[in-house]
Amino acid sequence: MNKGFDVYEYLDETLDFDKYEMRFIGNSPMEFRNIIHVPPCDSAVVAGYLKSSDIFVTASKSDPCSNSLIEALHCGLPAIARNCGGHPGIIGECGELFDNAEDIAPLIRKIEREYEGYRSKFSCPDIADISAQYESFAEELLALRESGNLPVKKIGIIRKIKSYFI
């Protein structure tokens, strides 16, 4: 239920489906009347759905780093996300945050009016750049350790486990 089905249920009942189409991709504990439910599928199919969409909505609760939100932003979609967890830091100026399900329809209209403005704010780094940053970070840690400037704390795991049972 932390995926935000309370919000999806609300949208399924109240969103103007004469004007909007909405898809939910993945497993769902509920049956939708108006939202199109797409069962779990491979990454290439998900990417196709994202690239054919206009706005991404995620209602997950306390998600520290939503992969689906990151994927949607990398596909160039302005997003609407629940104002919690890692969403605010990920979404930046590329979308809007909501606290209540009732806020979503006005946010959709706002993004519609200012669509190109949201899309112009995307600055998602290339995966090769991200990879190079991770590699550089790992090399820095290794150099610090080899120079003795990065102490490694060894944890006696058996001692830790025993402390829980004694």
Which helices and strands, and how do they pair?
Elements: H1 5-14, E1 23-25, E2 36-38, H2 43-51, E3 56-58, H3 67-74, E4 79-82, H4 87-91, E5 95-98, H5 104-113, H6 115-119, H7 127-146, H8 157-165
Parallel strand pairs: 1-2, 3-4, 4-5
How would you explain this protein's 3D organization?
The chain has 166 residues and is mainly alpha-helical. The protein folds into two domains: 5-119, Glycogen Phosphorylase B (Rossmann fold); 127-165. The chain has eight helices and five strands. The protein has helices at 5-14, 43-51, 67-74, 87-91, 104-113, 115-119, 127-146, 157-165, and strands at residues 23-25, 36-38, 56-58, 79-82, 95-98. The strands form two sheets. It has a three-stranded parallel beta sheet with strand order 3-4-5, sandwiched between helices. Strand 3 (56-58), helix 3 (67-74) and strand 4 (79-82) form a beta-alpha-beta unit. The longest helix is centred in the C-terminal third of the chain and has 20 residues, at 127-146. The radius of gyration is 21 Å and the shape is globular.
Task: Please provide the ordered H/E string of secondary-structure elements.
Answer: HEEHEHEHEHHHH
Task: Count the DSSP helices.
Answer: 8
Amount of helix: 40-55%
Largest sheet properties = 3 strands, parallel
CATH architecture of the largest domain: 3-Layer(aba) Sandwich
Distance between the first and last residues' Cα: 37 Å
- Classification by helices and strands: mainly alpha
